[in-house]
Amino acid sequence: MTTVTYQNKQYQCGNGSLLDSLLEQGVSIPFSCKSGLCQACEMKVLEGVVPTKAQVGLPENKIQAKHFLACQCFPEDNLVIASLDGETQNSRATLIDKVRVNRSIVKLILRPEKTFSYLAGQYIRLYQSKNEFRCYSIASNPDSDRDIELHIQVIANGKVSPWLANDVGIGEHIELSEAMGTCIYPDKNTHPTLFIASNSGLAPIYGMLKKALFQGDKQEFRLYHGVTDERDKYLVDELTHLSHQFENLSINWFDYSLVTDNKQQSFIHFALSELTAPQDWKVYFCGSPDMVSYGKKQSFLKGVSMKNLFSDSFIPSKTN
Amino acid sequence: MSLYSEIGGDAAVSVAVDIFYRKVLLDDRINRFFEGVDMDKQAAKQKAFLTMAFGGPHNYTGEDMRRGHAHLVKMGLNDSHFDAVMEHIGATLKELNVPDHLIAQAAAIAESTRNDVLGK
Ligand SMILES: Cc1cc2nc3c(=O)[nH]c(=O)nc-3n(C[C@H](O)[C@H](O)[C@H](O)COP(=O)(O)OP(=O)(O)OC[C@H]3O[C@@H](n4cnc5c(N)ncnc54)[C@H](O)[C@@H]3O)c2cc1C
Ligand code: HEM
Ligand code: FES
Question: Domain residues for A24?
């Protein structure tokens, strides 16, 4: 048992995370993923030391400023903590275009009100209201695009994705967090690179792929896009065009509906089947959590180095 | 010079983690203990694990080792599993061409945690 002091009140923290302990004791803390991804539960420690695991994924300046993620914090010491009220760097953007690209995905184009900086492959929190928000990955290339492109897969009984698809109109303002995430494509890379996406997992991969090709990287790139059904393919013309323009790019689609079971596994085996010399390759996985975790394990066992594996797992919100 | 720096320090441990953890995941005697743990989080833990076995800087106490493996002991973790892990540590270092006398030192450090890891 440790004691955590927050806003001059003391709370006991047992086996669960600091976030869960505070929520159970009636404290209101913003959160969504409970997985260390959305960073909504970011707080600051004033006294005591948080385990280093509670700072994984935060940028260096925030680690220096003693910020940490409450959902990843299992305190070992007594702590005094504070919220970041007033310190968060949310900004606003205007919805300037909205296109339904197929039966399941809507493409949004947002124009930030002030300069918005991000790295290829990062994601943002997008707010429906103060306490209802979700993560979406940026599909634009920071080197050339000033607007933010998002690909939203519409979840039938979801809260935020149907709202974005149906209710937000062109010209309306939307609140966004700063960009975050460590699944990014760097300014310099000479490793051949395999991109594996399921459904709207193509969003961050499209952003990274454009960066790679347009900055002139000459090594081999392979993209595998798994979709629920033929009708869920999108960006087919754009990707085909890129593969004609850049001969170091090849593209493959995988239709989950053509296999009866173990769909994610079949997709991964297909995508890894031609990976010879795996120790040289970087591999990116974005999309469904099952696909991502299975894919990472299989590519590691095949010989890809742990440091060359990158992923964004589209974990659903835990707020429902 | 410490064993850790003789083996090659942080850089060597990073390479060793790949080889070691791949062996562990492929070994049906023990891989069930590692199932269901996220790869990214495992990577950091495996690194802590090997750094410790190589006598590198860490701040785990015997008590931490006990607590950290207690749920595995409940799952049936015993000497035979510990021996399998020792095998993989040795084989990993051999693959990295670490000289035998250093392998023996690393094995002795890992061996010294046996009672704590197994909760004896
Ligand atoms: C780092 C990160 C990046 C992300 N990037 C994107 C992105 O670029 N594009 C994108 O479309 N989504 C992305 N997501 C997922 C997104 O954040 C939301 O989870 C998703 O839009 C559903 O939100 P919702 O409010 O519509 O549904 P909710 O109200 O959160 O969920 C409603 C119900 O549907 C279930 N559910 C949620 N998602 C799925 C699913 N995929 N399949 C089946 N059932 C589901 C929930 O468990 C719940 O029972 C990302 C998630 C993370 C963590
Ligand atoms: C050889 C001596 C061993 C040493 C020095 C050692 C060291 C460690 C260390 C430092 C951690 C990380 C703890 C943390 O940061 O959370 C860890 C975790 C772990 N160890 Fe060991 N360990 C040893 C033996 C074993 C054995 C024999 C097994 C099983 C066959 C095992 C399975 C695990 C697992 C599964 C975890 C992750 C626990 C979790 O996250 O649930 N270890 N070990
Ligand atoms: S990072 Fe803690 S709730 Fe998402």
Answer: 2-82
**pTM of the predicted model, to two decimals?**
0.93
> What domain count does chain A have?
3
Q: Cβ of A301 under 8 Å from any chain B Cβ? A: yes
Tally of CA atoms within 13 A in the half-sphere of A86 that contains its CB:
1
The label of the residue with tokens 């079949």 reads: A266
According to CATH, the superfamily of the domain at B3-117 is: Globins (1.10.490.10)
Same domain, A11 and A57: yes
User: Which regions in chain A score pLDDT beneath 50?
Assistant: none
A107 interfaces chain B, CB cutoff of 8 Å: no
End-of-domain residue from the set A149, A176, A203: A176
Q: Do A293 and B17 touch (CB under 8 A)?
A: no
- Looking at residue B1, its pLDDT comes to 66
Strands A123-127 and A133-137: antiparallel
This complex has an ipTM of: 0.85
For ligand 2, atom 10, name the residue with the nearest CA: B49
CB contact under 8 A, B14 and A297: no
Q: Are residues A304 and A199 in the same domain?
A: yes
| Residues 20-39, chain B, touching A (beta carbon < 8 A) | 21-22, 25-26, 38-39
Name, in order, each residue with C-beta under 8 angstroms of B114's C-beta and a sequence gap of 6 or more.
Answer: B79, B82, B120
Q: Ligand 1, closest atom to CA A154?
A: 26
Give burial (CB, 10 Å; 0-12/13-18/19+) of A159.
middle
pLDDT digits (tens, 9 = 90+) for B49-98: 888 888 888 878 888 889 889 999 999 999 999 999 999 999 999 999 99
